[in-house]
Amino acid sequence: MGAEQSTVEDDSQPATEIKKLTEVKFHLQGVEHVAKSENITPNTSLNFYLRNILKMTGTKAMCLEGGCGACLVVLQNKDPITQKDVFLAVNSCLIPLLSCNGWKIFTIEGIGNSVEGFHPLQEVLARFNGTQCGFCSPGMVMNMYALYESGKLTMQQVENSFSGNTCRCTGYRSILTAFKSLCTDADFGILRECPDVEDLVSCYKERCARKCSTDCNNVSKEPFLLELGEIRWIKVHSLKDLLRTLRINPQATYRLVAGNTAQGVYRSYKDTVDLYIDVTEVPELKDYKIQGDTCMVGGNITLTIAIEFFNEVAKSYPSFSYLKAVADHIDLVANVPVRNRATIAGNLIIKHDHHDFPSDIFLILETVGATITLVNVSGQETNISPIDFINCDLRKEPLVIKTINLPSFPTTFKYISYKIMPRAQNVHALVNAGFVFKFDNSGLLQSATIVYGNISVPFVHANVTERLLAGKNLFDNSVLQQVYTSLTNELDPDVRPPDPSPEFRKKLAISLFYKAVLSIAPSDKMASKNKSGGAVLQRPISTGSQDYEYNKQKYPWTSEIPKLGALSQTSGETKYVIDLPDLPFQLYGALVLAKAPANSVIRKINPDGALGREDIVAFYSKDDIPGDNVFTILTPLTTSEEQLFCDGRVRYYDQPIGILVGKSQEALENAVSLVLVTYDSPNVEPLLTSRQVVKEGRTDRITQYKKNDATRRGNDVKHVVKGSFDIYQQYHFHMENQCCQAIPEDKGLLVYASTQWMDLVQCAISRVLGIPESQITVMVRHCGGAFGGKITRASLIACATALAAYKLKKPVKMWLPLTTNMTAIGKRFPLSTDYEVGLDDNGVFQYANVTHYTDVGSQFDEDISPWFEQIFQTIYTSDTFTTSYNRVVTDTATNTWTRAPGSVEGLAAIESIMEHCSYASGIDPIQIRTANFSNQTPILTYMNDMKTWANIDKRKADIATFNKENRWKKKGLAVIPMSFDVLLLGPHLATVSIFHGDGSVQISHGGIEVGQGINTKAAQVCAYKFGIPLEKVTILPSHNFISPNNLATGGTIATDGVTYGIVQACDTLLERMKPYRTEGAKWEDIVKTSHDNFVVLKASGLYTPSQPGLGNYRVYGVCAAEVIVDILTGQHIVTRVDLTEDTGISMNPILDVGQAEGALIMGLGYQTTEKIVFSYEGKVLTNNTWTYYPPGAKDIPVEFNVKFPKDNPNPVGVLKSKGTGEPAITLAIAIPLAIRNALASARKDADQSNPPWYRINGTTDVENVLLHTLSDPSQYVL
């Protein structure tokens, strides 16, 4: 504790009068808006108000944690020093509406739209094909809008600023390229893609100048009070008023409100208190300056301002040069929109309240020896260390963090800090570390500060090791070995799933100390091969190329046409199911989940606690279902009937047991936990993986569904390779959560479902309600992403919603929160494989004995075997393979189709086997593959082309040289082939109508637009067939009356099916109009004449697997992936990917490029960052954006090249094309194999006797990599 100073409170001065308000005023799109307090609670977010009160649905809602970026809006305010306008992107889901008084807010609707004109950002994102499903697009635009309005931009700024925006569809490359085209340093290659970018910008500026000729009126910034029942919200504008407010309310529970970003991590901050005090405008808490040898920053400055200020100070003051490294570290905290609101004090308070929070701010301040100035209600100031602050009792008396005081450092001080994360940005630390080394004039250490985060809850300083180092030579290997021994004894990480293992965290912490020493060691004291170990991985600006052909003579077919509806998506005008307007008497639904492990038995469900609330209407369980308790039915694609609600025996943790219905989503979220369920505990522990089932000998859960016996066996066995392979679940992470709106009609229901399969929704609802299918109408305009997750799983949501609507005779809307999506819904099928392979000296397989176990979850329903079997044994000669295929039932949610189901797992398994065989035999990986290629495919041609195009041989040689010269950085390369079967499935129906007045055309089809561009290709084909402009064609929503009995959209086949149906329909119509087609006649005249002669100008076409001229086909491809790995941290960067994919004659090359890029990046996430972790009870612990990590914009390849072979028609494809939605995701296995190629060198460096290969066992994430480097502290030398 420091010495107390004089007080800042003077009671002789009158307090500022606080006005009592009944409303909140703010400017929205430049127009004053008033929100009445009776419609607001302290937890009413700006996002909720925009979407649900103002019905401005362009701003989306997804995670409600500040982790996805769908909800971004922009705040405009004045810089207090420069008085320049500052534009900040912020997460509207985390901003209390009550904080918005006096703010200027812009949403996607306000910056551009179809009525007043689109903003250049909206246009350029659409033109560069930077939108697919479109759900993330408004957030992307608003994030860029804040940058765009802030002044001249560089490409580096753009690349670094999208950490808070998640896109599951595009793979980010097209988004970044679009926005980089507006930068001052945009290169010619980018500008060439959209040559009229400058015209877009200049036109907008003229329009904007006219629109913004008058400024917004200023709202008073005086203190105010809002009374919300017994809760009070006070905004203060001075420290004096803040302290007085606290002093005169000694008994009140209170919360100081600034950024409010803590709610994104800990939902407990949503618990209401008596008094909320908004401190965002207290100048004493926002000051920052250099005062003597101290850098003082107010507790309430945002992390963004801290970064800017620290960078400025570091340039101007040599004694504070270390603040550049501090700024770089803070730049890794959260994401840009969160940093724009999050404050230093707020971050410290989270650490105070939750010691397990791995706060980087706390770590930095404790490392540098900063002090925190606290002020009590009497104005007395106390200086305290960060570690003392987090351990002080704030319940005894209110204390306000006034300033944080950072010391100056002489040149003899060295500061280094690290944050090691599972992806490049927007995630908390696996381990963070801070070091300060103070040297004397002789070069010996006077003292050392060693601080670690996320080791264990109480651990902060490595005190023993700090004392050990006093007076020592840091650059002495014997001293370093003493340090490692000390740290090994001192570090005792706790077990805290889903955080990584204690073994990993200890190993990483020790290696970070070594890394810090390497970063400051004199060059002459280090071996040259160790020098690169001191540097962190640096990522250059990403680039890419797209190589394809298109035929302008066949316009608009085969042309580079941006996706229809792209501008609607980028402007926020596209309406998804959750955006549909509320209807009179609108109700909402929420699933109630079983909070018990599998095999528990439900004894009683008591909803009275929830139903006793005024805003809760009903609860329904299995006992309230008038028909059958199912949400799937028997079809060619589904093999069993799954329960809608648990029938008594719990099949998996978080299985739905009922639906709670209320008057608002907010009311339901607060009431779901009040449904009390009593269980009988299970007498067995849950079995969560196939390996557990096999180990326990539960043969009743294992079904061998197929066995392929070898037809021959070679006798030249020189190498025998045995191994295993395991890969686990992947969550779909569609940006639009599962949702549905069901509306009662005279005799049935109108259902707006976010589904990939209208027919299943219709049939399943019919079964649940016991009414004819003809009384159920299903409409789907589009889905905000799906990836297979909305084929059968959407039926669960639709059936539950329909049940409530049917029984209550009122419209019911259900939207699953992200956590419910991630726990109640199944995921990708895990695969476990055991193998033994015999090879000759050329790498040719003499025999292979393989056993597969596919984890189907709690019930086998969806059959992925055709795709799995094909891809595993087609690309290579497999007549020597004896393969056993097994399904295993586990106690997890029934697994479901996920992009390229079976194919992803199958290719990963066979390529893992090939790679293992290569390392075990010493035969080159490409050679061993080509030696076993089937002569029934052209894959060798593709492989040879890749070797030339991507300069593989030279790069392999360069990598070998690099690895020889560097001990702690390693490069790796893997080249993976693919043969992906597209199986004909149907039916797919399409209907085309021509209107006689102007010759325009409407299409409705049974496919579902999920971002893949099915509507765009449908319109292109139709326009081409009729020879009319594309603008004449309109696509209607999918409707089960127009397209009844249609198969699901999935399997890469829906676009084929729909476009084939359109060709049929167009041919039928052209034949009907043939008598009235005369040479030179205009289309409009032909249509009118046909109509006058009573020609039916409507026709349908049906695609089925038996159509002549069509057949199953294969998509071939090759991917070369190169990585660089930091052996001391386990982190990596994908430095280059070259991808070639066989697309036949592409109907739309830029859409197909987008599909290929997006698929590969989704696969990259599956292979390297996305990991599902269960508790021992089977509860999913990785159920939000804080714990589950799809890749971000800086995780994609630095260089991303895509090529489609030219002059390559598909003889059995629709219009000679091939599907592109799924194949490329399978090739992402190249990335973990490239990482293993890099680690092979490191493992040999550690000990030549080490095996170079280590098996794939789940995600090749940072933990997996570091633990398999086989390095240990004895090797950490200079």
UniProtKB/TrEMBL annotation:
> Which proteins does it associate with, and in what oligomeric form?
Homodimer.
Q: What coarse category fits the chief subcellular location reported for this protein? A: other
**FAD-binding PCMH-type domain: from which residue to which, for each copy?**
226-411
List of catalytic residues: E1222
Q: Where in the cell is it found?
A: Peroxisome
The record lists [2Fe-2S] cluster 2 as bound by C133, C136, C167, C169
Which residues does Mo-molybdopterin bind?
Q756, F787, R899, G1051
Pfam families (alphabetical):
Ald_Xan_dh_C (PF01315), CO_deh_flav_C (PF03450), FAD_binding_5 (PF00941), Fer2_2 (PF01799), MoCoBD_1 (PF02738), MoCoBD_2 (PF20256)
Q: Which Gene3D superfamilies match?
A: 3.10.20.30, 3.30.465.10, [2Fe-2S]-binding domain (1.10.150.120), Aldehyde oxidase/xanthine dehydrogenase, a/b hammerhead (3.90.1170.50), Aldehyde oxidase/xanthine dehydrogenase, molybdopterin binding domain (3.30.365.10), CO dehydrogenase flavoprotein, C-terminal domain (3.30.390.50), Uridine Diphospho-n-acetylenolpyruvylglucosamine Reductase, domain 2 (3.30.43.10)
Obligatory cofactor(s): [2Fe-2S] cluster; FAD; Mo-molybdopterin
Textual note on the cofactor: Binds 2 [2Fe-2S] clusters.
Q: What is this protein called?
A: FAD-binding PCMH-type domain-containing protein
- Binding of [2Fe-2S] cluster 1, residues: C63, C68, C71, C93
- Swiss-Prot/TrEMBL keywords: 2Fe-2S, FAD, Flavoprotein, Iron, Iron-sulfur, Metal-binding, Molybdenum, NAD, Oxidoreductase, Peroxisome
Q: Which family does it belong to?
A: Belongs to the xanthine dehydrogenase family.
Residues reported to bind FAD = D356, K419
One MF term in GO for this entry?
Answer: 2 iron, 2 sulfur cluster binding
Q: Which GO terms describe its cellular component?
A: peroxisome
